[in-house]
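hi!! sorry for the late reply, been swamped w classes. u asked for the two structures so here they r. pasted raw, havent cleaned anything up. first the sequence of the first protein and right below it the tokens
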Amino acid sequence: MLIKSILVILVIVLLFLYLFREPQLNISYSQNSIISPAYGKVYKIQKINNYICISIILTIFDVHFQYVPCNGYVNNITYDKSGIFNIVYSDYDKTRYNEKMIYEIKSKFGKVFVYQIAGYFFRRVIPYLKKNTYVNKGDKLGLITFGSRVDICLPSKNLNLLIHENQYIKGGDTIGLYIKIPET
């Protein structure tokens, strides 16, 4: 009985170590690149007004830390504790109402929005950024516990998107390039 208990505890500890691992990012430091804020599968890409919005679904086996997609200034951070819909199995549009952190980053490309959307069972979003601070591409943005979703909305003007739906991406992968960087 003691050996079974020790094995169960060991499995749980190893599972937590695996789930909350922090692999080294392979970041492109090109001035005109945008990196993936998360590990996971690109579920949906859609154009909304003047933005390209990318939804990345994380399973419980993906890395659950998120990263800053570009250099910029954190204009605003909003915590929204709304609904509790299952990320993977519910209607996609309903999950946008789940508990989430919304980051507005003012970059040289325009305003970039990152949404950390919590899942149904373990609804916990842990932010690492502070409002009114400058952040660098690849800085740790925050953590979502277990299954979840990350959305990133990028200004569509001059954006060359390098990913497609159903593609698996890693945090730090280049997901887009801006062909022309606006003059500041």
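now the second protein. again sequence first, tokens right under
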Amino acid sequence: MNAAPWAGAVAGPEPEKVVQWEERRYFMAATKMTQTQLIRKIAESCEISNKTAKAVLETLAETAVTETKKNGMFVVPGLGKLVRVERKARMGRNPATGESIKIPAKKVLKFRIAKAAKDAIVPPKAKK
């Protein structure tokens, strides 16, 4: 009786690929700041309690939402601005059938980063 060639094989990806994925996943998780870490950082730098820092962060978020709804824009000095943009209705094309379709107008949110923040994160290229 002959065994199938895959009989002893382990299902799933190769072990070295699993290790690479685990390392990458750990790296991604290690570099991302959580809400709790942000609250602690604010509390430490401003010498306030974590509860107060959380309240400040929640108030900032609520204010950003209400001001953007009311005025269409909210500015966070030194970081950027949250802008509500009106997109016009337009004609599009269904890629599967090639049929022309009408895309309705809608409102979208954009965050436009401040130049100072952008230059601090991604330095501009040197001019020739």
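hope this helps!! also noticed smth abt the second:
Residues 64 and 89 are 27 Å apart (CA to CA).
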